[in-house]
């Protein structure tokens, strides 16, 4: 019975160690808590709607606008004030959080799947397959992506699906390159050789032997792609090419604020969605750094570097 | 070396061709009749047919594409649907603002990013490193348009409310009659464009520098008794900066995108603002022209970077 021994040596799994290291990283922990809070905020958006009695798209021209037709500053009825049409900023912020999180996470995960698939194929098969796929990655990387997104939106009209598609298409290449490099070095390992000599086919080797060894870069790079996707979506919405108004999104709220420089007389219109966007991307970036340090302790974490002269 | 450059050049041409096929066919399959967009709603069927024949829209798609391409190579990108002016002329008139923004932005981000990275790496673990790391994280997370609007609020609106004027509230002033005024109007756009990339370069420089300073040849240089200054700036810098050159090539792709947003925020009448207007107006020839120009910009920048790389890193030669 281990419980009776005074000095217990516990065998800890790889993932358990990672979680313990992550929990010791105070910045990452705060970031994680913030992300959880934003997620809850997004999930309970209808509760804010019920509590304030304001729908995210209804215009409260009587109570939500000054006699001059200007937005109302934060007050007891509108905690975060109202926008240029007299809509409640708090309720719109909550519904906008849904858009940012869903698009950010979904696009990052899809981009990861595409990047891993293409990267693994290129690295594993090598030769001509690798040349073609690598050139394709180079091609995607040297395309003016926001301009192409503009062209696509002008043809198909803005929509959330198109936003996700555009973000995925222009962000999977980083993952693809990293994975390709990893697979090329893994391919020559003895355990792959062993598998092959036991009669395993290429698909089996890829899934059983190689993929599990890629879990660290996959998790790290997927986390790090989320803030990029969130900003990309907000940028598209800001330029009027993302979420279709009047549906709320953080980028769209900032675009409304920028219209006619309205935010100069109504600071909350840029401060509130801007802070929400900044803090969310900051939290994901800090968490990404934390996960990288926790998963890859022999890697280049800032903590270890300190010991160098 | 020449073979290497030729290969890069061929790849650049390939990128441009792919882009041209992409935009051309994208607009070909798009709904909406270009002839009607030009002629307006009141046009008769005969007028529409006339326009289609004039523009060659009744020809097969492949023929249209070849015609479009041969003209594009000669600098003829067709006419705007809105005001019938040549697309090339409209774009050229918008270039000064964008070029000012982009070149100044690159200079600012290199001038901020690299020193911050070096400072961070040389004091690894110390207070200055923490500051550098904080700068990197915040810079990476700040969406350009949020930063732009915040800067305008703080540096233009608040001082103006307090009764004095600090920085202008946007707009583009041409360089020639008054360069000082031009720079004065560009300060905020430059810093806004530069911040995110300054953070990326600070992070890269920091990582590279730490790696390089652990190399044997740096130890040897130290052992020879060279001053720390010479070791860092003469021996360490070259190996630190070489990978940054290839990163610079990749970042140029994102640069025009960043320029679009900044031109919107600061009311600069550049190419990016033109693209946004063209999308709003469904002015296809302009969109095609701007996308191709963006591609050309990236290809040329990448070739310049390749040449710089050849000069910096003798192993590639």
How would you characterize the overall build of this protein?
The complex is a heterodimer of chains A (309) and B (317). The longest helix of chain A has 37 residues, at 89-125. Chain A has helices at residues 14-24, 26-43, 45-52, 89-125, 127-141, 145-156, 160-187, 190-197, 202-210, 215-238, 250-258, 268-295, 302-305. Chain A is built from 13 helices and no strands. Chain A starts with 13 loop residues before the first helix and ends with a helix. By secondary structure, chain A is an all-alpha fold. Chain B contains twelve helices and no strands. Chain B has helices at residues 2-29, 34-39, 45-55, 61-73, 87-122, 127-141, 144-162, 179-213, 216-223, 228-266, 271-281, 284-312. In chain B, α1 (2-29) runs antiparallel to α12, α5 (87-122) packs antiparallel against α6 (127-141) and α8 packs across α10. At the A-B interface, α5, α6, α10, α11 and α12 of A face α1, α6, α7, α8 and α10 of B.
Main features:
heterodimer; B: 317 residues; mainly alpha
Give a short synopsis of this structure.
The complex is a heterodimer of chains A (309) and B (317). In chain A, 68% of the residues lie in helices and 0% in strands. By secondary structure, chain A is an all-alpha fold.
Q: Please provide the count of β strands of chain A.
A: 0
Helix count, DSSP H or I runs of 4 or more residues of chain A: 13
Fraction of residues in helix of chain B: over 70%
Low-confidence stretches of chain A: 300-309
The percent of residues in helical segments of chain A reads 55-70%
What structural category characterises the helix and strand content of chain A?
mainly alpha
């Amino acid at each position: 019975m281990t419980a009776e021994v005074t000095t217990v040596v516990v065998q800890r799994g790889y993932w358990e160690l990672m979680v313990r290291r992550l929990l010791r990283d105070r910045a990452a922990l705060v970031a994680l808590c913030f992300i959880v809070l934003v997620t809850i905020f997004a999930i309970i958006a209808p509760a804010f709607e019920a509590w304030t009695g304001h729908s995210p798209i209804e215009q409260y021209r009587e109570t939500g606008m000054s006699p001059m037709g200007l937005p109302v500053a934060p007050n007891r009825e509108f905690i975060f004030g109202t926008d240029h049409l007299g809509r409640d900023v708090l309720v719109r912020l909550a519904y906008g959080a849904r858009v940012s999180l869903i698009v950010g996470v979904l696009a990052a995960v899809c981009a990861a799947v595409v990047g891993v698939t293409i990267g693994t194929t290129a690295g594993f098969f090598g030769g001509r397959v690798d040349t073609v796929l690598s050139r394709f990655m180079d091609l995607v990387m040297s395309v003016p992506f926001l301009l192409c997104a503009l062209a696509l939106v002008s043809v198909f009209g803005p929509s959330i699906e198109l936003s996700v598609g555009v973000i995925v298409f222009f962000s999977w290449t980083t993952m693809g390159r990293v994975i390709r490099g990893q697979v090329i070095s893994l391919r020559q390992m003895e355990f792959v050789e062993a598998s092959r000599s036991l009669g395993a086919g290429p698909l089996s080797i890829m899934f059983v032997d190689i993929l599990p060894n890629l879990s660290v870069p996959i998790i790290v790079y997927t986390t790090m792609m989320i803030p990029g996707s969130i900003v990309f979506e907000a940028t598209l919405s800001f330029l009027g090419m993302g979420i279709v108004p009047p549906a709320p999104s953080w980028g769209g709220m900032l675009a409304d604020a920028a219209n006619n420089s309205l935010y100069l007389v109504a600071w909350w219109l840029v401060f509130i969605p801007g802070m929400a966007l900044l803090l969310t991307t900051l939290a994901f970036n800090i968490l990404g750094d934390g996960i990288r340090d926790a998963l890859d302790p022999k890697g280049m974490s800032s903590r270890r570097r300190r010991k160098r002269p | 070396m020449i073979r290497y450059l030729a290969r890069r050049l061929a790849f650049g041409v390939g990128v441009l061709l792919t882009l041209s096929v992409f935009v051309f066919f994208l607009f070909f399959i798009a709904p909406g009749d270009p002839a009607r967009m030009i002629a307006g709603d009141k046009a008769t069927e005969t007028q529409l047919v006339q326009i289609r024949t004039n523009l060659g829209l009744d020809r097969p798609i492949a023929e249209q594409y070849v015609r479009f391409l041969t003209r594009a190579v000669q600098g003829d990108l067709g006419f705007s649907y809105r005001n019938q002016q040549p697309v090339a002329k409209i774009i050229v008139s918008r270039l000064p603002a964008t070029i000012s923004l982009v070149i100044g932005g690159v200079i600012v981000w290199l001038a901020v990013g690299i020193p911050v990275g070096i400072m961070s790496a040389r004091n690894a673990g110390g207070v200055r490193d923490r500051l550098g790391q904080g700068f990197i994280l915040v810079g990476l997370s700040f969406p350009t348009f949020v930063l732009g609007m915040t800067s305008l609020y703080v540096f233009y609106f608040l001082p103006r409310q307090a009764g004095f004027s600090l920085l202008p509230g946007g707009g583009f002033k041409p360089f020639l009659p008054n360069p000082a005024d031009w720079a004065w109007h560009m300060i905020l756009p430059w810093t806004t464009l530069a911040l995110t990339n300054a953070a990326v370069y600070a992070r890269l420089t920091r990582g590279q520098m730490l790696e390089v300073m652990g190399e044997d040849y740096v130890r040897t240089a130290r052992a020879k008794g060279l001053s720390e200054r010479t070791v860092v700036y003469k021996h360490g810098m070259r190996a630190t900066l070489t990978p940054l050159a290839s990163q610079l090539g990749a970042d140029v792709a994102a640069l025009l995108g960043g320029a679009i947003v900044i031109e919107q925020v600061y009311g600069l009448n550049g190419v990016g603002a033109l693209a946004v207007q063209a999308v709003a107006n469904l002015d296809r020839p302009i969109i095609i022209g701007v996308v191709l120009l963006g591609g050309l910009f990236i290809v040329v920048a990448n070739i310049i970077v390749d040449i710089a790389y050849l000069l910096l890193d003798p192993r590639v030669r």
